[in-house]
Amino acid sequence: MHSIHQKSSLHRLSGFALLLIAAGAMAQPIYRNVDKNGKVTFSDRAPTASTEPAAAPQAGITPPANAGLPYELRQVAQRYPVTLYSSEECAPCGTARSLLVTRGIPFEERTVKSSQDVEALQRLSNQASLPLLTIGSQQLKGYSDAEWSRYLDAAGYPKSNSLPAGYRNPPARPLVALQPAPAASEPAPVAQPAPQPPTPAPSGPSPSNPAGIKF
């Protein structure tokens, strides 16, 4: 009788120990890891020195223009950056800007005001008409809703707005950076010409790009 009671007690103690182990496993913490590209993963292992968290912007340092974008959109914007060239008295420029904003395209805007701006625009596109849109090295001269949308699709930009709430494109800047007034004894600085984009390679149609657009 004593041995049966003893075995029963041992059995209960073993079952209780198993319950404690299971409870400890269920209470195991889950760690959230963020790598340098902003990709989030979850693991039961604490972050190690090799896990690089997303760098927080330091005080006084402006983060990159695409820092707040979703990962896939940021990759597209880095490969095929979009720049709108516009001027104040240009109705098609306003329409073009509205298309980019409505669709959620991250872009920079360069304004053409001074004679130096006009000269730089002519060197860039061999013309002085606006608006001008560049997607990577591809130039789209003059506004066309259908054409611009087709090229944005081919570059991989989403067709609907996926920008995070509160995202703002950088403010428009002059095409030629304004130079400070030189001192009387110093010669005036020479404006640097705008960089010439590479000539796009011949394109061909494909199942994912029926229009045959290539950047």
Structure in words:
The structure is a single chain. The protein is α/β, with parallel strands linked by helices and 215 residues long. It has a domain at 71-158: Glutaredoxin (3-Layer(aba) Sandwich), CATH 3.40.30.10. Helix content is 32%, strand content 13%. The chain is built from five helices and seven strands, in the order αββαβαβαββαβ. It has helices spanning 2-26, 71-79, 91-103, 115-125, 145-155; strands at residues 31-34, 40-43, 82-86, 107-111, 132-135, 138-141, 173-174. The strands form two sheets. It has a five-stranded mixed sheet, covered by helices on one side. Strand 3, helix 3 (91-103) and strand 4 (107-111) form a beta-alpha-beta unit. The chain is globular and about 65 Å long. Mean pLDDT is 76; it is low at 16-25 and 49-62.
CATH superfamily of the domain at 71-158: Glutaredoxin
Helix content: 25-40%
Tell me the number of strands. Answer: 7
Strand content: 5-15%
| Text of the CATH class of the domain at 71-158 | Alpha Beta
Count of helical regions: 5
Give the second-level CATH assignment, the architecture of the domain at 71-158: 3-Layer(aba) Sandwich
Lateral arrangement of strands in the main beta sheet: 6-5-3-4-7
Overall 3D geometry? globular
Order of helix and strand elements from N to C terminus:
HEEHEHEHEEHE
Report the C-alpha radius of gyration, rounded: 29 Å
The CATH topology label of the domain at 71-158 is Glutaredoxin
* Low-pLDDT residue intervals, each spanning 5 or more residues: 16-25, 49-62
Q: Which structural class fits the helix and strand makeup?
A: alpha/beta
Largest sheet: 5 strands, mixed
Distance between the termini: 88 Å
